[in-house]
Amino acid sequence: MVLGVSGGIAAYKACELLRRFSESGHDVTVVPTASALEFVGAPTWAALSGKPVATDVWTSVHEVPHVRIGQSADLVVVAPATADLMAKAAHGLADDLLTNTLLTARCPVVMAPAMHTEMWEHAATVANVATLRSRGVLVVEPAEGRLTGADTGKGRLPEPEEIFELCRDLLGRLSPGSTTHSGGLDLTGRHVVVSAGGTRERLDPVRFLGNRSSGRQGYALARAAAARGAEVTLVAANVTLPDPAGVKVVRVESTAELRDAVLSAAAAADAVVMAAAPADFRPVHRSETKIKKAEDGSAPSITLEQNPDILKELSSERPRPGAVIVGFAAETGDDSGSVLDLARAKLARKGCDLLVVNDVSGGAVFGAEDNEAVVLAADGTAVDVPRGSKGALAHVIWDQVAARLPSS
């Protein structure tokens, strides 16, 4: 693979990205721009990659590097990608080794932009990003946060470990010898909303009603959608995981906050996947002071009321016509029926298009790295997903969603 590095202050973060690629067994060729070497020198890249580095097309010219490097790559990642580099790539300019490599590459290309907010939002950059995406380049949305100096805003390079995870996800979906830039970016141009985590209903300033959801499956869904080219809004309820690269994260605490955030984002969404675990009930009255223990050992009486059913509301009202709605069901089975019996009844009751069913008997799934499920559809079909990574399950879910999306 090729790691392109353009001239931004975030170039130092690419060292960590290179380390992760190398340690996971990838053969990495680093191609920096001349400006990038002002931030991180050639000896650093050579030491970390085990290969010499060059910025121009004249070094080792007998090996025709300006053509060979791109031709032989399975993946090209540019991190950071500056406004200047993306402008050159969008217009087919080739004045150094990296831009030549981008012109000759026939493999998937990932660009992780990093720049000041004003530069990211400038009409020229917006147009260049749209052009690159239309050609099948996966341009990752930059993160929000601290920029150069005291400035903050959108334009920060996503964390290297998350760029690595996105690229690993993309590579895992490529067929050997793939020669397409798109690399299966079947959600390009689509906006999807994913909820994740478990909501908390406050009892008093220190206690709450909640559940064991870690948010891992929701985050895997968000990461997988971003790797397939989607614009992703992730509504996260009490999750401590790092933000997936290229994903807008909206943080909430209670079920009411989750409902408001999901419904707001769903108005412009092609698909909504409700992977979060909302609390079914909330206390009618919340104490503004800590509830004390009674001297006689008696327990306080807490009256609960039902929270809104977000999945049912989404399915019945459809904020955007034609949107695909996906729910999750964590079931254990009981005297009234098996896990699948209860899940089919829930699918009919909720009115969603797909229902991902987890058997959580004995606390399975919660917080685990892997998962297994059955994806039930409103048309009566079912897809069994054997135990595997939560990322693998996420892609099965998006396969089912993509098959049901109306033509754009």
Automatic annotation (TrEMBL):
Instruction: Give the residues the record marks as binding CTP.
Output: 280, 290, 308-311, 328, 346, 350
Q: Which parts of the sequence are annotated with region: Phosphopantothenoylcysteine decarboxylase? A: 1-191
**Which portions of the sequence form the region Phosphopantothenate--cysteine ligase?**
192-408
Domain DNA/pantothenate metabolism flavoprotein C-terminal: from-to ranges: 187-403
Q: What is its EC number?
A: 4.1.1.36, 6.3.2.5
Which cofactors are reported in the record for this sequence? FMN; Mg(2+)
Q: Which reaction does it catalyse?
A: (R)-4'-phosphopantothenate + L-cysteine + CTP = N-[(R)-4-phosphopantothenoyl]-L-cysteine + CMP + diphosphate + H(+); N-[(R)-4-phosphopantothenoyl]-L-cysteine + H(+) = (R)-4'-phosphopantetheine + CO2
- Say which domain of life the source belongs to: Bacteria
Q: How is the cofactor bound?
A: Binds 1 FMN per subunit.
Question: What is this protein called in UniProt?
Answer: Coenzyme A biosynthesis bifunctional protein CoaBC
**Gene that this polypeptide is encoded by:** coaBC
